[in-house]
């Protein structure tokens, strides 16, 4: 009997232990469901995965129900067998079929079709006993019936079950109610969590998209702001990172007013040094060192950001200078057509500083711009600030006196090559207005420009008279002077001195003026080139350059010059 009971306990243990992995699987599934899903998983998929716990739990509870039904009927048989003669534990062994069939009293004392529960109450197991599933060999029928019972009662929290007075049966029904309630709460809680997470994810995605659109718009504003303030675009990522953080907190930012306040101190200091006004003050170019701060401020307001691609020609040689170029980032090459000069300029350098002294030129109001003496070409992607000649016109008109003082300051300071280049470029341009000097070498013109002197004449004074010796060539810088023969106003008088250098009478006999020039304004200011200066310049070093001046080509000019020479000789004879 003891051996039979031990064997039965072993069999019960083996039956029960197989459900341990299933319960463990339910626990692991619950634990895994708490981890975030990788990527985006649909809400219905998450709900289905959680509902799988219901399926697994229903299968386990249905199996326990089937197992406990078998245990319940065998318990009844063993209880009845104790009071019947010829019935013992050996009768329940599987190999003893004949003895079991002869004991019909078991069916009478353990009735499954009677409503009388006083004999033995099977409680929640009565339905499975009455259906005959326990005696059936149809496994799918056993499985489906047990699973259906577990699912129905788990979902209804065992509210339809009426257990007997058996303690273990009551505890089993209570466990079904508790497990069903926990799984229901767990499922609803997870679904609510998933809905909330999906809502947050969608809201986060919308917020991210709005932020990206805002960043794209602000990116253009920041790029414009950086160019406007002379800051290289390579610092844009650092600034945009701070802008992103600010937009995430405040959702809006005024780039022009607030961008500096959100940047770290180091970046603020760097941007301050990159601002146009700061750059202009730090440039090692003579005009900027001597320029009034109000003029610098006005110039900085007119600086415009420009971008040039690799190998793009920015300024062409021998063309009117359209702009002053201030390199912010990248490199440019300065070169001449004859390759006599070639050098590079980087960030912080500029080209076209002639525009800074242009307002002090005598030809400024006539719109005659300086001529570029070199070509400027980008050799990288170049960011630059440019001051257009058209903007310099308005600046020069407002601050003309300041530019005149600037020119005077430059002339009084230490005279380096860069000083002379700026000071004489106006006079060289003015000398080139004389037709005979347009082909003259610039070195000669530069030497002439250095000897130009300033004179003032009052109204009604004849600066030159017809048939009188000509000792100076006049360039009108202020006032009005008319030709006595034609009555027309002119800017240049006494250009006969240029041809005089090539005449045989040079340098003993001065040429004669071919017209009379009279000051008709209140007074007039001139730059004059004297005959004595020409004598000095027409030395062995420069005489070859004068020989390039075109000789008279028409008969009238030839006769006129011959007559002037004769008159000059006669006057000289009478004078003696």
Automatic annotation (TrEMBL):
GO terms for biological process: monoatomic ion transmembrane transport. SMART domains: cNMP. It comes from Prunus armeniaca. PANTHER family: CYCLIC NUCLEOTIDE-GATED ION CHANNEL 15-RELATED-RELATED, ION TRANSPORT DOMAIN-CONTAINING PROTEIN. The chain crosses the membrane at residues 48-68, 170-189. Residues 287-357 form the Cyclic nucleotide-binding domain. GO terms for cellular component: membrane. It comes from the Eukaryota. This is Cyclic nucleotide-binding domain-containing protein.
């Amino acid at each position: 009997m003891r051996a039979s009971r031990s064997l039965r306990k072993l069999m019960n243990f083996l039956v029960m232990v197989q459900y341990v992995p299933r319960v463990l699987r339910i626990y692991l599934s619950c634990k895994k469901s708490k981890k975030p899903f990788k990527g985006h998983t649909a809400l219905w998929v998450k709900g289905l995965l959680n509902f799988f716990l219901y399926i697994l739990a229903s299968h386990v509870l249905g199996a326990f129900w089937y197992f406990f039904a078998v245990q319940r009927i065998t318990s009844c048989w063993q209880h009845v067998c104790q009071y019947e003669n010829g019935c013992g534990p050996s009768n329940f062994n599987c190999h003893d079929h004949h003895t079991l069939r002869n004991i019909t009293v078991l069916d009478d004392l353990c009735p499954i079709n009677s409503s009388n529960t006083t004999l033995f109450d099977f409680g929640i197991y009565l339905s499975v006993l009455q259906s005959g599933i326990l005696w059936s060999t149809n496994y799918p029928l056993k499985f489906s019936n047990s699973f259906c019972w577990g699912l129905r009662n788990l979902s209804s929290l065992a509210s339809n079950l009426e257990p007997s007075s058996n303690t273990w049966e009551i505890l089993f029904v209570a466990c079904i109610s508790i497990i069903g309630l926990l799984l229901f709460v767990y499922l609803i809680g997870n679904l609510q969590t998933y809905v909330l997470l999906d809502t947050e994810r969608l809201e986060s995605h919308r917020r991210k998209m709005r932020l990206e659109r805002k960043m794209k718009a602000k990116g253009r504003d920041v790029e414009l702001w950086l160019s406007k303030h002379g800051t290289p675009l390579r610092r844009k990522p650092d600034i945009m990172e701070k802008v992103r953080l600010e937009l995430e907190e405040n959702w809006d930012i005024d780039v022009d007013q607030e961008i500096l306040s959100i940047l770290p101190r180091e970046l603020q200091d760097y941007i301050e040094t990159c601002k146009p006004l700061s750059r202009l003050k730090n440039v090692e170019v003579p005009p900027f060192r001597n320029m009034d701060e109000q003029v610098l401020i006005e110039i900085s307001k007119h600086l415009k950001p420009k971008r040039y691609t690799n190998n793009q020609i920015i300024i062409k040689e021998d063309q009117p200078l359209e702009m002053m170029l201030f390199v912010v980032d990248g490199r440019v090459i300065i070169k001449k057509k004859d390759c006599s000069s070639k050098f590079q300029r980087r960030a912080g350098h500029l080209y076209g500083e002639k525009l800074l002294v242009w307002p002090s030129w005598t030809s400024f109001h006539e719109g005659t711009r300086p001529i570029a003496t070199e070509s400027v070409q980008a050799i990288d992607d170049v960011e630059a600030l440019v001051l257009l000649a058209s903007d310099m016109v308005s600046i020069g008109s407002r601050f003309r006196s300041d530019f005149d003082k600037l020119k005077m300051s430059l002339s009084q300071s230490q005279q380096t090559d860069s000083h002379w280049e700026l000071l004489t470029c106006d006079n060289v341009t003015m000398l080139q207005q004389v037709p005979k000097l347009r082909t003259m070498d610039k070195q000669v013109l530069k030497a002439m420009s250095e000897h130009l002197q300033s004179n003032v004449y009052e109204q009604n004074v004849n600066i030159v008279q017809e048939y009188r010796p000509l000792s100076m060539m006049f360039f009108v810088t202020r006032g009005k002077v008319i030709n006595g023969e034609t009555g027309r106003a002119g800017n240049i008088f006494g250009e006969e001195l240029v041809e005089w250098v090539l005449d045989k009478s040079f340098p003993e006999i001065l040429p004669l003026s071919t017209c009379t020039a009279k000051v008709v304004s209140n007074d007039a200011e001139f730059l004059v080139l004297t005959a004595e200066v020409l004598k000095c310049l027409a030395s062995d070093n420069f005489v070859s350059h004068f020989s390039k001046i075109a000789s008279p080509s028409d008969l009238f000019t030839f006769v006129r010059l011959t007559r002037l020479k004769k008159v000059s000789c006669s006057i000289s004879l009478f004078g003696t």
